[in-house]
Request: fold
Amino acid sequence: MKTEILMLILFALGSYFFGNINWAILISKLKKKDISKMGSGNPGTLNMSRNLGLKLGLLTFFLDISKGAVPTLIAYFVFRTFGDFAGTEFAISDFAVYLCGFCVVMGHIYPVFLKFKGGKGIASTIGVLLVCESVSGWEWVVVMIMALVAAVVFIYLTEFGAMGSFIAITPPAISGSIRLFLKYGGDKLETCMAFYIVTNMLILAICFFTWFAHRKNIERMLAGEEHPTSIKEMVVKMKAKKAAEKSDAAKKRSDTESLKENNTVDSSAGKQSLVKREKQTENEYVFQSESGEKPAETEENSAEKSS
Reply:
């Protein structure tokens, strides 16, 4: 039992520090910008999409999902070999995945290396819940997929990014709690009540802290001042940027080809002029020889005589 507890503590700490990696800040720094000083100031997917483009926003989204998924998945594979908690029928892996998931989300929202000012945890939470649902069966994955589709459609139609984010994480969290009840309800519940309650509290805590991180968004939504998240506008900007890049590339190619052509013409003209001068000199020499005149000394011949 002591080994399991020690391993859980180490995995929890590791997950927290792994959550401290903020991909939005790293990507914006590579672009020589600071996403924390742009738009809403949140170093997350939606703010990245609004200010640095949909492509970088999606990159941030998938990297943050992987940040939540990786420690959760590792915890599952490690702790499923440990069996159940002593004296109970509650699988250690069921507790471990939500413990590590909670810690990685906390690391994202309150990173110690960024003075506890991180993102809002939606993408990381999606990663955590995606793993928790996936390892439990395909039917639970369907809930996750449906929630994500509903969230995207909602954001597309209403432009309320924060509310769409809540739609993405809340149904899978509820389904996770239902799954635990179906697995440990009935006679099993008597022996594992404590772990069952704590695990559900971890699920609730993950949702609570992600919602709490959006408290200013909720206030702005209620006041009608929330920043719009227009997927249509993002797509239009991305297409315009691609078109501009293609136009610039075509212009550069055209300029390069024009320069090469000019250099070729100049080189050809120079060669023709040189041949013409040589031919003219040769004709003069022949004419002077035939008329009996002494050919004009060239600088070369003059130099030879003086030596």
Summary: The chain has two domains: 2-229, 239-294. The two ends are 106 Å apart (CA to CA). Residues 298-307 have pLDDT under 50 and may be disordered. The CA atoms of residues 145 and 168 lie 9 Å apart.
